[in-house]
Amino acid sequence: MKKTSIQWNTIKKVLSYIKPYRYLLIFSMLFGAVTVVLTLYFPILTGNAVDLIVGKGEVDFPSLFSLMKKMVVVLMVTGVVQWGMNLCNNKLTFEVVKDIRQKAFDRIQILPLKYLDSHQEGDLVSRIIADTDQFADGLLMGFSQLFTGVVTIFGTLLFMLSINVKMALVVVIVTPVSLFVASFIARRTFHMFQEQSLVRGEQTGLINEMIGNEKTVQSFGYQERAVERFGKINQKLEKVSLSATFFSSLTNPSTRFVNSLVYTGVGLTGGYLAIKGAISVGQLSSFLSYANQYTKPFNEISGVVTELQNALACANRIFELIEEEAEQLDAEGAKPLEQVDGSVEMEHIWFSYTKDQKLIEDFSLSVRPGFRVAIVGPTGCGKTTLINLLMRFYETDRGTMRVSKKDVKEITAKSLRSSYGMVLQETWLRSGTIRENISMGKPEAELEEIITAAKLSHAHSFIKRLPDGYDTVIGEDGGSLSQGQKQLLCIARVMLCLPPMLILDEATSSIDTRTEEKISAAFSEMMKGRTSFIVAHRLSTIREADVILVMKNGTIIEKGDHKTLLEQNGFYASLYHSQFE
């Protein structure tokens, strides 16, 4: 798509966000028009004042004082109206930006995991925060100066024509040169600002990646390479930013040079006409003021155009995120899954993350209600992928999956996911109190329920030792809590809800052996009557499973309980013995 087409499409999208607040835009334009009229009226008063004091000893003081009072009133009214215009502009800009930022964040919540897995977190953060701020700055400048600038140009021209047509023609003839210079430069800066936004997102992504994994960075001595990577991106950002800033900065001095030519032409022509008596000295004074006011908007508009190029480039990146195709899991007529018996059937499932790399091929599985299914195998065999398919985080390429005898495509994704309770190896806690984190899946839960769940997960003892107990506020991702403590809170979260099916993906990986024994007992109690899928590397944790699926290269190579698989002396037996030799 051509750059011009991209810009126009972006402008149309921005206008659609402005539409709900058009009353603010109308008031802003009205205030702007009044400001321009009063600003243009002031030079007439100035010219009249000059004519009252031209002759020696012929100063008309009464008329001059009356005129000065009128000038003060005009200045005061102009100031108030201009304040009203700026108020409307600010309100309009930040309402629009608020809506865009909210829509971008809402979109992230419904994007498929495939999109999130393939994009840097920092780039997405940069779009919602940095790009939106840049867009707001450009939009605010556009509202503040673009409309008033255009009105000032036409208004000044009318006033100049009313004073003297010849001098007005001098201004009109030279003006197109200024417009040509501004548009010529502006057309060439859009792609530069677009590239600047892309590199800025790349830089934010690297910073986010390094800060979030600083312990790993330092433990493996990666600091120098991280600094080197950052330096390369920083140099790239410097290069594209300098190019964008350099070319955009040419606009103002170029138009100022042309405007100086206009002022010179007006001064020479006006001086000659004043000598000839065609105009008064006061009119010449007014006309010179108008010449300045006429050319000033061109400088402002050229600056606005530059900022708008940057703003549109940033807006385009935001709209790309907002318009990204959302996760479409619910087919037409899909119904909530209400009576969950816990049975799961997968028939001839095929799936791969990328077309050129096969993963799960012709996979079939039948799980009876209340069964404990353990999934083991080497890294990359498809254990986590199977969990992703059960939760419908990814769609299968081929095959059928049923839960409680219903095709998962005929039930809503929300009801399916709420039927599972997940405890993952990677913990996630949000900023808030311990109580809020445990009750995330059941916000209406009473404190007694939360305490019971915490006791079952053996989190109650360490929570009591915290400064404010269950009302202790923790930071993002658990703050100063240990990895094991964070894992206990995530387990308590599931124990509070107790859904009909469970997924435990290395749920006790961050817990010491003694606590793990207690948790396993709690899990055993919790899993009674509930279908459970247990992904484990430590095979000692799955001995009591009803069935163990041994996976390799996306297929089940062995199946049975712990005793049966050991007697077969196959792949599972070799894995098990390797952990205890």
Q: Indicate the mean pLDDT.
A: 80
Query: How does the major sheet shape up?
Result: 6 strands, mixed
Number of structural domains:
2
Taking strands numbered 1, 2, ... along the chain, how are they ordered across the largest sheet? 6-9-10-3-11-12
Strand content: 5-15%
**Overall spatial form:** elongated
Q: Which CATH C-level class of the largest domain is it?
A: Mainly Alpha
Q: Can you tell me the CATH topology of the largest domain? A: ABC transporter transmembrane region fold
Q: How many strand units?
A: 12
State the assembly state of the protein chains.
single chain
Top keywords for this entry?
6-stranded mixed sheet; Rossmann fold; 581 residues; alpha/beta; single chain; ABC transporter transmembrane region fold; elongated; 10% strand
Report a brief summary of the structure.
The protein is an alpha/beta fold and 581 residues long. 64% of the residues lie in helices and 10% in strands.
Task: Please give a structural write-up.
Strands 6-9-10-3-11-12 form a six-stranded mixed beta sheet, with helices on both faces. The model has no long low-confidence stretch (mean pLDDT 80). The chain has 20 helices and twelve strands. It is an alpha/beta fold. The protein is elongated, with a radius of gyration of 35 Å. It folds into two domains: 9-322, ABC transporter transmembrane region fold (Up-down Bundle); 344-580, 3-Layer(aba) Sandwich (Rossmann fold). A hairpin with a 2-residue loop joins strand 4 (398-403) and strand 5. Helices cover 64% and strands 10% of the residues.
